[in-house]
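Lab meeting notes turned into a lecture example. A postdoc, R.K., suggested we walk through two folding results consecutively so the class can see how the record format repeats. The first protein's sequence and structure tokens come next.
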Amino acid sequence: MIADSTDAKDVQPDQIAGVIARAKAFKESTGTNNRKIAKAIGWSTGVISDFFAGKYPGDRGQLAIDLDRWLNTEEELAARPRTTTFVWTNVAMTIKATAGYCLEGSREKRTIGLVYGPETAGIGKTLALKAIHAELTVRRSAFLTVEKVDATPTALLLKLCQAVNVETWGSNAQRFKRVADKVKGRSFIWLIDQIHNLRWAKQDKPFYLLTDLYDRTETAQLWAGTADLVAYLEQQQSRDADESRAQIRSRIFPRIDLMEAVRDGGSGEALFTVEDIRRIFAKNQLRLVGGAPRFLCQICNTPDSGALRLCVHLVEYATALAIKRGLGSIDERLLDEAMRAGFQPHRAQLMLDSISVREHAAVRAKAS
């Protein structure tokens, strides 16, 4: 490591070599590439590549300092105890099955599918998409997350280019052609997270870009987002618009509501089981004991609760409380306390009441 007070001109060759070695090891262990590193520390990808190859003629000392500080942060984050482990829950399996249908299930051609939940879901869509991408590898899939700032054709095309590792220079037409040429004729699926953010675009142009890509290449797409997108696509544009959103809707099949099984007394499979919860939090610093797994399971299966995302926050906070008090495990009472501390009192009570109602309903259903 390079001391914080070190000036760039005082960085020694052996320190630079040490930073390069650490960075290469970090890349190999985490799958990070030069583009991500360059973006994180504010240098260009070409400079990072030359620096690692020992060919950069510029200010190697300053670059080594910037890279060293970034590595210190990233290594510290990587070393922290993990709260959760990815598990193929019913939600994740539903998303995987939908991706499989989009890619291979239709006899006629590949499709654009949509999986969605409420805005407060936190049910693991992103983790499931990343797991599917890891299984299919970059040869058969690309994963990208759409932010609000990506709700323009140019921004979306740049993300598409980066996802399949093609050059980003030139006009949008040139970028589109390079992306299309890269995937056309392949058994390939685009896994696009937070697709609902595209509804902020003017005249829905990014949506038409994606449907044009589908028409041009016949490669599958799986969109993941919130129910807001479904409501948005059901709206009609003004009469003077070039196209209707019906053109977009007609290309989307299947459309899967991930919360349907637990909404309004749904009779489908639970989103999460108690065993899922035990496995998800198996690597947490402290064990879940007693009724804690069931308590968290009820939260995960309660609509609009925040689901798994809320459970992670509760377990992290309960873990901190337990360690502070010298406890060796987390029980239901500690999770209850964490919930009441983390919410305004009336909201916490509403949540706990909702869990209690669902628990009693489940008992009655089992008895009948």
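The second example is placed directly after the first for contrast:
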Amino acid sequence: MGERHQKKQLETANAKGAWAICQHDLMRLLVFVGFPMLLVPGLLAAQAGDASKVQQGITPPHYQPITKSRRALWFVKSAVGPGSLAAGVVSAGWGTAYNSPPEYGPHISGFAQRYGMRFPEVVMGNAIEAGLGASWEEDPRYDRSGQGPLWQRLRHAATMTVLAYRGEGAAAPAYARYAGIGGENFIAKT
């Protein structure tokens, strides 16, 4: 009977592992297929360079280009502001709950290591985005839509994830943001 019980436990563990892999694949599908589908209209319009094709209201009427002091303030706030610190807690908590990476362990010291490893990555990515953005006149700030139905606000949020305002107020692909994300990930892996 003990052998049968062990076999059943092994089957249960395999089923749980398969479900975890399936959940991971579903999340990837959502992130890499579903989310980008929301972004296509804004990206196509921005690449075409035709401002009339960009969704209504993408450049707010009150837009002011970012100054050097505001860019420095954005950098500090995005690294050590309450939102960033809270995101670090959530990220480290998630990693601790799923013990990822496993070498840190599923305990409070593992949580602290995960939290501590995230901070330099965030600083590096934001420094790259702020530095390149300054030379390319790319505004890293997010401007809330705050108007229209929920779908329009969600579309604005998704679009402004990959677009940024330029010095003259036109929305264009956020190349400094892409470089910051890529650079922080490259540095974190080396």
